[in-house]
């Protein structure tokens, strides 16, 4: 575990990116701190005019462009080093070892996302292929759900997979569960998660140490997580741990991530230097 507890302070207007020494000027940017009762940003939609929203979405696009550039410029051996460090941290973490149902993203090389291939292989490792009893106990009984994009209107589901062979590239060139088998028959084992999830391993373009997360602009995760949260509340499920994986250039200083009302905050960040627990449940468990 790195980084002691971080206290998030309200916004300043001049913000500095920690990773690239670039200064962002965001007039009146909203960076209010986390509400973990509702994981969405504590800000009412109605309190923002469309003009203000347009301005924040514009700021998001500016940050995305900057972070994409830093990711593209990352030295390949540094990237591999960071992929290894991040995946080792996850694989060795008690909160990962103890989780039974999780949703994780399938990393996409062309998007320069933190690699999840070793994490996924470990989860999908089947009893009999493991070498030691210790490795079997922790992974063989995990149920894995991965994203499946339903449409272009921010609708996404999480579908169960048992093998990497269950995947096929979608129109965005991201691997996702195939809904039919090689013979064209509907696969019955691909079901939408309708059970409590212990852990979400989230992608994203940029993060701060206070739990703010900037996605790729599709609104898929925010929409999904809000719906999941509503369903969990209705069914009395406990909150999952929401953990994002981040290369060092993706971690911005507090205030560097523009936020809009639907943004869902994360509980913790896994960085190349270790875990940054953010919310009380994460601080308790990490
Ligand atoms: N690995 C992975 N799977 C995922 C996501 C993700 O971020 N990563 N998603 C998370 O939502 C959903 C898919 N959403 C996506 C949204 C945008 C792009 C994308 O290619 N964006 C380009 C810019 C495109 C543009 O601006 O027109 C990019 O970011 O470079 C990909 C996936 C579900 N599956
Ligand atoms: N100016 C705007 N006003 C209102 N909605 C907007 C505006 N610009 C984009 N959106 C919508 O906001 C959503 C994207 O939100 P945001 O940029 O916060 O997503 P994100 O961080 O990529 O989300 P995630 O990674 O969680 O999927 C999309 O549904 C998009 O249509």
TrEMBL record:
Its cofactor is Mg(2+). The gene is A02g500760.1_BraROA. Its EC number is 6.3.3.2. Belongs to the 5-formyltetrahydrofolate cyclo-ligase family. The keyword ATP-binding applies. PANTHER family: 5-FORMYLTETRAHYDROFOLATE CYCLO-LIGASE, ATPASE INHIBITOR/5-FORMYLTETRAHYDROFOLATE CYCLO-LIGASE. It comes from Brassica rapa subsp. trilocularis. The keyword Chaperone does not apply. InterPro entries: FTHF_cligase, FTHF_cligase-like_sf, NagB/RpiA_transferase-like. Keywords: ATP-binding, Magnesium, Metal-binding, Nucleotide-binding. It is an enzyme of class 6 (ligase). Pfam families: 5-FTHF_cyc-lig. It catalyses: (6S)-5-formyl-5,6,7,8-tetrahydrofolate + ATP = (6R)-5,10-methenyltetrahydrofolate + ADP + phosphate. Gene3D superfamilies: NagB/RpiA/CoA transferase-like. This is 5-formyltetrahydrofolate cyclo-ligase. It comes from the Eukaryota.
């Amino acid at each position: 575990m790195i980084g002691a507890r971080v206290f998030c302070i309200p916004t300043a207007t001049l913000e500095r990116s920690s990773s690239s020494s670039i200064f962002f000027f965001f007039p009146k940017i909203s960076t209010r701190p986390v509400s973990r009762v509702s994981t969405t940003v504590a800000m009412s939609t109605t309190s923002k005019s469309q003009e203000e929203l347009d301005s924040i979405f514009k700021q998001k696009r500016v940050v995305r462009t900057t972070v994409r550039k830093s990711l593209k410029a990352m030295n390949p051996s540094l990237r591999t080093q960071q992929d290894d460090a991040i995946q080792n941290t996850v694989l060795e973490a008690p909160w990962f070892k103890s989780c039974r149902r999780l949703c994780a993203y399938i990393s996409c090389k062309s998007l320069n996302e933190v690699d999840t291939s070793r994490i996924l292989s470990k989860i999908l490792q089947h009893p009999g292929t493991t070498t030691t009893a210790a490795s079997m106990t922790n992974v063989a009984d995990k149920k894995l759900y991965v994203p499946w994009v339903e449409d272009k209107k921010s609708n996404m589901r999480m579908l169960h997979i048992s093998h990497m062979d269950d995947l096929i590239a979608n129109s965005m060139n991201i691997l996702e569960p195939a809904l039919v088998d090689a013979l064209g028959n509907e696969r019955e084992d691909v079901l939408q998660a309708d059970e409590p999830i212990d852990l979400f391993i989230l992608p994203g373009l940029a993060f701060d140490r206070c739990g703010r997360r900037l996605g790729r602009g599709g609104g898929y995760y925010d929409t999904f997580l809000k719906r999941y949260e509503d369903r969990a509340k209705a069914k009395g499920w406990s909150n999952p741990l929401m953990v994002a994986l981040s290369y060092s250039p993706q971690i911005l200083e507090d205030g560097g991530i523009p936020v809009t009302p639907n943004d869902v905050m994360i509980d913790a960040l896994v960085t190349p230097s270790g875990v940054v627990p953010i919310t009380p449940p994460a601080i308790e468990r990490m």
